Amino acid sequence: MSRKAIADRMSYTPSRVRRAGEVKMEYVFGAALAVIIVGAMVLALVFGFGRPEQTVVEGARYECQSCGEQFTVEDQPPKTPDQIGPGRVDCPKCGAVQSGILMVKCPGCGEYFVPETYKRPEDVLKGIPIKNICPHCGLDLGEWRKQERERIRRERGG
Predict the structure, then answer these.
(1) Cα torsion for 132, 135, 138, 139, to the nearest 10°?
(2) How does 74-91 read in b/e, with b if 16+ C-beta sit within 10 Å?
(3) Residue 49 · residue 43 · CB < 8 Å
């Protein structure tokens, strides 16, 4: 084989040769992926995917942190999820906006109260330990939950 033939063979690699106007497939796939991602983002913004349908519990009791009134959600006119804060509702008595905090029923005495963790969420986020103690009977909800988990584990045989 002549030197010229060897040189021609070494410079010719089929994977690198493109005709004029030909586009690499990587660019086509990249553009298609970008269109899909942008389309998904537009759909999420328009239809609000991931937004909760409702942020309050129907029939649950709430206590206003401004006036102390206890009420249920049915006491209020219905609102859209955009008008309601997470777990908070407007007070029907004094009109304070998002001052109603969800109450829990004490498993010891059956009375309703607002746990301290609901009143001080910023402290919970900071990692400050807060005890949820029923003001009516003194039951510590955290300790009660631990005992319940242990009881259930014993009943299951684990």
Answers:
(1) -40
(2) eebeeeeeeebeebbbbb
(3) yes
Mean pLDDT, range 90-117, rounded to an integer: 88
Max Cα–Cα distance, the chain, nearest Å: 102
β-pairing, 61-64 vs 104-105, is unpaired
DSSP 64: E
Average pLDDT value for residue range 126-144: 91
**Residues 152, 156, 158, CA angle at the centre, nearest 5°?**
95
Length of the chain: 158
Angle at 67 between CA 64 and CA 68, to 5 degrees: 55
Mapped onto helix, strand or coil, the DSSP state of residue 57 is: coil
Q: Tell me the domain boundaries of the chain.
A: 23-52, 55-102, 114-158
Give the span between the Cα atoms of 40 and 38, in whole angstroms.
5
What are the residues facing 85 on neighbouring strands?
Answer: 88
**What's the pTM?**
0.54
Provide the β-strand partners of residue 63.
70, 101
Tokens standing for residue 80: 């859209």
Phi-psi region of 86 (alpha: psi -120 to 50; beta: other; left: phi over 0): beta
